[in-house]
Write a structure and sequence with these properties.
- This protein has about 280 residues and is an alpha+beta fold.
- Helix content is about 35%, strand content about 25%.
- The protein has nine helices and 16 strands.
- The strands form four sheets. The chain has a seven-stranded mixed sheet with strand order 3-4-5-6-7-8-9, with helices on both faces.
Amino acid sequence: MRLTDHDTAAEDWSSDLALIEEAAREAGAVALSHFGQDPEVWWKNGGQSPVSAADYAANACLETILTRARPDYGWLSEESRDDLRRLETERAFVVDPIDGTRGFLGGQTNWVVSVAVVSRKRPVAGVLVAPALGDVYTAMEGGPALLNGAAIRASESRGGPDDDELALCLPASLADRFQPRFRERLRRAAYIPSLAYRLALVAEGRLDGTLVKPNSHDWDLAAADIILSRAGATLLDDRGKALFYNRPGVRHGTLFAGNRALVDTLLRQFGPPGQS
């Protein structure tokens, strides 16, 4: 019997959340054992992106635990060959074994293991484990967003004239596309190599919002997306639309994250490339 979106929201995802949290913690321990140990590194995407022995080891850990527990779920991971049989499944795991590999290799601590369950193209459970920080973010449809078991909530800054300044993490190329007066009120936060962790900071309220350059992938976003949602924030594309996952194409365009009122403001203030 085909389930409706309402039925999806009403389902209890707690067992899936518990499973992916356990798997992410174990994979995090595997990755942490390589941290600072100069793991072997290869280059992919035409030499643009590093991947290390730690990424592969954490990926193997996740795949073993999760596919054995839910053999009927699809599998999509940054570090696995894409098995398009996932498109025939109602539910899928969407995984990044180390989000922020460059930071990981450079000794930075703000990298995460990202694991989500996607049902009918939307995330319904998500976990971000930051082993070097000792932090675990979790959320599922119908429940709160949690950091180490305590509820978190996104900033309520709306981007209006009463907000003195907005703490946003975004590259200069995107900051330059805001209207000049609005741009003056932005405080650009330091670059964060892990996109998923950056989105978690928005969910936690440590950043008001963030913009994401084109060409992020499902595995960068899915777990953080549900955490944002349950923390009172949203992740939308430049048309103001929610993202869909586990499709044939896994890349996304320019994205906006923050509470809905702020994202609406950001979308209004954002202009085409070349705007001065």
